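Re: duplicated header lines in exported structure tokens

Our pipeline writes sequence and tokens for each protein into one text file. With two proteins the header for the second block appears twice in some exports. Here is an export where it did not happen, for reference. First protein block:
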Amino acid sequence: MKISIKDKVRFLNDTGGGIVVRVIDKDNVMILTEDDFEVPAAVKNLIVIETTEKVAEEPYVSDLSYNYAVNEEEEYYDEDFDENDTNIRLLLAFEPEGGDVLNNKLNMYLINDSHYWLLYNIVTTSEDTQAGILSGKLEPDTKLYITAYEKEELNLIKSFTVQGIFYRNGRYKMQNPVNETVVLKHSRFYKDSSFTENDYFETAALIIEIEDPCKQKIIESVSQADITKILKEKDFSENFHKQEAQKFKAKPEVPLLEVDLHINELVDNSNGMSNAEMLEIQISHFRSELEKAISDKVNRIVFIHGIGAGTLKMEIRKILEKEYKFLNYQDASYQKYGFGATMVILRK
């Protein structure tokens, strides 16, 4: 069954449905539910009730803070646009959470500093493995939040590759496509001087220009004196060879608390139970484990809810937003959990 962006769908194995806002891969899509939540879903678990053609008269317009499909009508022709304008800047940015350069967590952004629309794809390379982390469409003169990384996570990433096509409606001068690889020099993430004032954030950020198509780029090097200082403070190599990575990973870490909310982990036998009864048990366990983690002063806790129709995930996040506004949460590690877990940050 073929499913397209803007198709209206229903879940086969659960109540509710929504609109397809992004195709993740050939087997999975992202659904904007009737409760305004984004939920990944397997194509085989969906049924199309209105095709793209039927809903075209009422197109879905995205919230720019998310990677939703953008209404084509918004790609308007700007009469004041100079068709010979070639002033394009494409950048990656790492902003320390809370504006504190000493913070171990960095928020990653893609910045389109141009008057062109951008079709983009971002890929990471770790060892010999490549993984796409986000793709979509970005408005002119817009920055897009991609994800958040701990500095230790960035140490395991060799490079980011940004692919892109700039375009406009109406007459314009065609731009070369972008296929740029940024090889990371990990020591920069630990230098205060790497985070500078800029035009894109109210706080200092590490800005990386993506500018020359089809040409590999290495983040600017640091002096040997800087490297020596960082090695003493951080105890890992400026080149970050595999041997050093293994040594770093061998350091004792505070274990991450995991709570599996799958119903078969909570009851001996779920036969005969309704979806509502199972959800009630899962939410009750979620509340008790969260309260216990707060009481025990746990730093972070991961709730494994699975993908399914996304009902449990949505209920968890509703509770967090309504009753625990003082806590932060985010998708847990995609490499470990896929889309099936939420990490709650109790203490920074």
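Second protein block, exported in the same file:
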Amino acid sequence: PLNTEHIKRMSRGFAMIQFSKGNRPDIKSGYTLDDNARALIALSQMYAERKDVSCETYIETYLNFICHCLQTDGSFLNYVHKDILFTSQNEETGLEDSNGRAIMALGYFISHAGKFPDAWTLDAIRMIKQTFPMITRLQSPRSMAFVIKGLYSYWRKYPSPEICSLIKLLADKLINYYRQNNENKWSWFEAYLTYDNSVLPESLLYAFMATGDTIYKETAKESFDFLLEKTFTGEQIKVVSNQGWLQKEREGQKFGEQPIDVAGTVIALHTFYTVFKDEAYLAKQKTAFNWFLGNNHLHQIIYNPATGGCYDGLEENNINLNQGAESAVCYLMARLTMD
């Protein structure tokens, strides 16, 4: 059974808290746009697909928090202190990826228009439209990928040439990055593999579905198959280590795996199977999901059925037993994709 208790326990009237100590929410860690954007997607999906009405108040909370982070220039701030003020971390860290995630969440939410109060949908549409000028300035490949996914969801519900041309603009930039880096058996968009890698090829599949341009489809498959080759060994998934990541033409570290990467792979494999109908993607999806259930190098369960939370990481000899927002929501998103 699907358990959203930990996600709800991590959520306050204002937003979802970032970290936990064990399974106890750590209010001192404050809030992030990243976590609340992901939570909006996961609980909207629970509500829309599972008719779980208990999610409704939380969905409104996450939507309001995204609105709180939206700035007048159409960009978002990511880090919010427990006292509701924006923290200085917003000046020190690149925020493009969290901006992309917010747009992905808004687009996903809009795609379920009719299932939620109209006022909420209109709010989400107002916010996403406000971001259009900012979208054209994005440089980070991941942020572009998140935005393509969000715009695709929006476009499917409310088709328009404007959204389609934004999707095309971003997809062309990704193709450009790919051409600059694709050499010597390194079929990727950057000179390194970091976190949440699967969303890059996956977004190009969405661009293909919106535009029909086969270059997006071909590049999506080529780059995704390259990534799968790097992350699946035998009957296990082993995602890129967060200790130094994986640099082109170098050996990466073996340990330091996070739920976000496994969940992203599960979700992307589902998208690839939907387009290509290749059973190998389906088999890999099951293998990847089973990482949460013990199919990993420590043979330890990463999901916590007692709390509905998910442990924050798999290290060389131990599990990080904290159950933060990112892990719990990523697990739920992966689990929903398995159905």
